[in-house]
């Protein structure tokens, strides 16, 4: 199943459409997930002794996994999941940003990639031709200053 316990998902249908929550239970056999605080139902509980007097209890009900979409923890977008074999393991990948969603070490790789991308952009900026323009203009004001200085000393 593409959704696992601990994932953040967004609800696609029903009264909680568009809301996000953490998956607290995933049942691959039923293709259903339970999302914390969402798709709440009121359950009527029968009294079971002094500590459990019974009554109404609000609790999240299982949602068909096709009615939720994974929210990528890296790019924050609702995304479909791609599968990839990495280091002999089947891992899930975000189809939007390409981040690997299983395993902390792999997520670090994704951030490192971002940092490298930023660095190369900065380098490109630094390499822009900035030498020629000031070189032609600089001597002129210097001469002007010298002339005025010379005039002043002559007077
Ligand atoms: Zn992503």
Walk me through what this model shows.
With 155 residues, this protein is α+β, with helices and mostly antiparallel strands. It has a domain of 60 residues: Roll (SH3 type barrels). Helix content is 29%, strand content 32%. It is built from three helices and ten strands. The strands form three sheets. The chain has a six-stranded antiparallel sheet, with no helix packed on it. The protein is elongated and about 110 Å long. The termini are far apart. About 4% of the residues have low confidence.
Describe the structure concisely.
By secondary structure, the protein is α+β, with helices and mostly antiparallel strands. Helix content is 29%, strand content 32%.
Please indicate the percent range of residues in DSSP E strands (runs of 2 or more). 25-35%
What is the CATH architecture term of the domain at 1-43 and 55-71?
Answer: Roll
Low-confidence stretches: 105-110
Q: Termini separation (Å)?
A: 92 Å
CATH class descriptor name of the domain at 1-43 and 55-71: Mainly Beta
Number of helices: 3
Please bin the fraction of helical residues: 25-40%
What would you report as the Rg, rounded to the nearest angstrom? 31 Å
Structural class: alpha+beta
The major β-sheet equals: 6 strands, antiparallel
Q: Largest beta sheet: what is the strand line-up?
A: 6-3-2-1-7-8
Q: Would you count the extended β strands for me?
A: 10
Mean pLDDT, to the nearest integer, reads 80
Looking at CATH, which topology of the domain at 1-43 and 55-71 would you report?
SH3 type barrels
The gross shape turns out to be elongated
Order of helices and strands: EEEEEEEEEEHHH
Bound molecules: zinc ion
């Amino acid at each position: 199943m593409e959704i696992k316990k601990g994932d953040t998902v967004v609800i696609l249908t029903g009264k909680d459409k568009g809301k996000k929550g953490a998956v607290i239970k995933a049942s691959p056999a039923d293709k259903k997930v339970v999302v914390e605080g969402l798709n709440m139902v009121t359950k009527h509980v029968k009294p079971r002794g002094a500590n459990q007097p019974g009554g109404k209890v609000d609790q999240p009900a299982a949602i068909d996994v096709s009615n939720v979409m994974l929210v990528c923890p890296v790019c924050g977008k609702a995304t479909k999941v791609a599968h990839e074999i990495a280091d002999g393991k089947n891992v899930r990948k975000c189809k939007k940003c390409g981040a690997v969603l299983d395993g902390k070490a792999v997520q670090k790789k994704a951030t490192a990639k971002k940092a490298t991308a930023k660095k190369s952009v900065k380098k490109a900026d630094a390499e822009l031709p900035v030498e020629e323009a000031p070189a032609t203009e600089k001597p002129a004001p210097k001469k002007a200053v010298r002339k005025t200085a010379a005039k002043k000393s002559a007077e």
